[in-house]
Amino acid sequence: MIVQARGVEKSFGTHRVLEGIDLEVRRGSVHALLGPNGAGKTTIVRILSTLSRPDAGEVLVDGFDVVRRPGQVRRVIGLTGQYAAVDEPLSGRENLLTMARLRHLSPRQARERCLELLTQFDLLDAARRPVSTYSGGMRRRLDLAASLVARPRLIILDEPTTGLDPASRQTMWQAVRALVSDGATVLLTTQYLEEADQLADRITLVDAGRVVAEGTADELKRTVGDERALLGFADAAAYDAARHVLGDRVLDAEATRLTVEVPTDGSAGAVRDLLDHLRTSHVAVATIALHKPTLDDVFLTMTGRTAAGRETAPAALEEVR
Length: 321
What we know:
It is built from 12 helices and 14 strands. By secondary structure, it is α/β, with parallel strands linked by helices. The protein has 2 domains: 3-222, P-loop containing nucleotide triphosphate hydrolases (Rossmann fold, 3-Layer(aba) Sandwich); 228-292, Alpha-Beta Plaits (2-Layer Sandwich), CATH 3.30.70. It has a 6-stranded mixed sheet, sandwiched between helices. A hairpin with a 4-residue loop joins β12 (252-254) and β13. α3 crosses α4 (107-120), α3 packs parallel to α5 and α5 (136-147) packs parallel to α6 (166-181). The protein is elongated, with a radius of gyration of 24 Å. Mean pLDDT is 86; it is low at 310-321.
């Protein structure tokens, strides 16, 4: 494990942000911290990157304690925050060269590493343009490139695709996959369910400063049940008849929408058997749709609300985090 955290607590004034967080991140993987705004994700990132001290608990990064050995921790991590930390009057190349010299690379090493990163993140054509002329996606790619100058073992990405258009988000996803292919470890915080589903080898679901679930995306989805068939009916009589015929198999029913949900394994045979059973009972099905459990279903089950439905923390507190 490149990250090991036990019983981490953090408060801002009287507000408890983290309440005994446990976290382990395996080397060479993408690990996602998934949760709504205000869940405590950024606070965890700040502690892991030595920008904030925990009130209680122990945190090790690559074997180094973040409180006792912060200098060693900083040597092995790269951090990309929620907002691109680039110098707009400088060019993209100048930003990377500055970061390389700050990380004590020789002038030659700095130029070589700068060229590698500009090429890797498709910024070579814009390398000598001021960053103020870059699009949002280009700035995020440059910011990520800057965090990779010293080839960190752990790359921490705090909501790296917030505010990006779909094409730029896909580009960032490709960059993350490439980093792991090269042997890096990525800790990713996100409130986008699809992002965690697409990228993460393992997901820690956080809400209100607590870990509420952890596992692979498939493991988490299995906690909320199997695939479901959503049956629609043309009128109330067919709806009532279906409920009667299906009995205890009904997982959910909505009279206003004339729909009934039943479990299924999603196979053609299971769906055919379901429709045949209703047809032999003289119940006509108007529509059918298959629904696989999603991470949003997991979040709803674990917290009683969807990830998108969480209220944002007060602005002043969010700024502190």
